[in-house]
Amino acid sequence: MSIGNRVFTKRPAFDIDLLKQYEQLPAANIADTMNRIAVLGNGIKRISSPKKPIMAGYAITVKARAGDNLMLHAALDMATENDVIVVSNEGDRSRALMGEIMVAYAHCTRKIAGIVLDGPVRDIDALSILDFPIFATGSNPAGPFKEGPGEVNTPIAVGGVAVCPGDLIIGDADGVIVVPLNDAAALLDKAMDYSKFDAGKVEAAKNGTANRAWVRKSLDEKGVEFIDNVCR
Question: Which NCBIfam families match (predicted)?
Answer without folding.
Answer: PRK06201.1
